[in-house]
Amino acid sequence: MIMQMRDITGPPIARVDVVRDVHHGITLDDAYRWMEADGEEFHRWLDGQARHAREHLDALPHRSGLLTRIRELGSALTRYFGLAMAADRVFALVREPDARVPVLTVTEADGASRVLFDPGTVPGDGHHAIDWYVPSPDGRRVACAVSASGSEDSSIHVIDADSGAIRETIPPTTRFAFLSWLEDSRSFVYHRYVEQRRLDSRSFLHRLGADPAQDTVVLARGLNPHIELTPQDRPFLVVPPHGEWMLAIISHGALSPWPWTGEQLSDCTVYVAPRAGLADPAACPWRLVAGAADGVTAFATSHDTLYLVSHRDAPRSRVLAVPLAVPDLSRARVVVPAGERVVETVRVVGDRLLVRDLDGGVSRVRHVPLSGGEPADLPLPVDGAILEWTTHPERPEALLLVAGWTDAPRLYRYDGETLQDTGPAPRSPVDFGDVQARTLHVPARDGTPIPLTVIHHKDLELDGDNPAVLTGEGSYGIIDLPEFRPEMLAWYERGGVYAVAHLRGGGAYGREWHEAGRGERKEATITDFIDCAEHLIALGYTRPGRLAGEGVSAGGIPTGGALVRRPELWAAMVMHVPTVNATRTEFT
Q1: Which residue intervals define the domain Peptidase S9A N-terminal in the entry (predicted)?
Q2: Using one digit for the tens of pLDDT, what is the confidence trace for 67-103?
Q3: What is the CATH superfamily name and number for domain 431-588?
Q4: What pTM was estimated for this model as a whole?
């Protein structure tokens, strides 16, 4: 199944023209610097490589049958994601197997579902796609961000949830933005850039029916003396569904926060103020709750309390609570102490706090009374991933979408006490009953156990002759969560092994795992990948002539590094848009 690199002969040879650089006393020779100019010679070489590869790949005897099976399986499952609840409605993004982009759907209280908005109906050049959406508290309207041709420079369309008609539009650019409705369901705050620039972004208050050009600036550099902003900062205003308070979330880093969900923040600064301050944004009495050094990565609110997930003095994070009226972090109450699991994010559901954990790359969930007490586990039926969750703004209810490496997504409803399985979302016609996934712990060369997930057919023989693919990234704290991919059944049916290395530099064990594979410790990401490959071989899963590596983007660091250091281990190395030379990143 895997074509060995040594069997490929005759590709076009690239010209060697060495450029020598010295960085901090270290000499580096770059033989292919000339390719950065992206000139005619480079494109001739690329075209020749593509033709050569195409000839060999097309000649593989089993390729046609494998491709047919992959397409059959890949078109079997409808994708269901982007859940949100408001009033008696459940909204979701749905992508049918033959669809180019997802559509926005709504399910009514009686169970009837319909397509509410198809971005393909938006006029203009290029194809359009939904970037994100937020329903109003009363469920009657949806603010839907739509961009053209993958630009993510969104326009916000306000859609009537009864008819699906677009009532008004706010033009770009709201790239990587957010939106928070006010309780009246007739106004919202949103973030956008000014004049296509990526500096001095602002948050605005928009009232339905008003001219967007006249929207009130509510957060901006120099607007309010209580909030300090740099030109690079992005200020987001969050209005929780209940209570008298609002939050300002200031993003300082390269990773985008999603404040409307209260998760995936990147060490942001947090302020709190009475929401009455919207009447006079320049004089609003904002109070600092947490700075970037406090390591806040997620939040949730009740009527009078702010819950913060913080990794300060807790590498795997803990949950703190402060009164919104007196938000003194130095006197915060510990709601969930630090432990072996990584605390990812939290949600308030009725009188409980729902806590989502990460346990070596697998999702777990706990709940704890808001009044205090010990967190209790809510058992999930599979060792998988909580792909997403959403809470109802008015009642104690949450929806959790859960999937595993061999388990199609299922939807669970939490009522403040228990998790109830509501069934597949939607039902998968692909049967993974003969496929198994297990997580090994590979001893790295320094003794650190590295989680390695291995997926294959249950009848696989460990004879060292199975084709195998090892993938990994190990950067930016990214977590390789379990993912159900129907098309992978074609690989397992043919005796293939798929292995995911949860490398240091990623987020399998939180901030400390990320720090253990970055900066001067980045070498660990590469050696972890090599150690996982050697472990697969030692256990008889595969052998060097049958093992391929794979990496995407920053996954080019472990794959490229492993290929250079141990070329004899690999039959092939597949690198998609890889980062392979960090010394040239700023120039390319």
Answers
A1: 11-223, 284-418
A2: 999 999 988 889 999 999 999 999 999 999 888 899 9
A3: Alpha/Beta hydrolase fold, catalytic domain (3.40.50.1820)
A4: 0.86
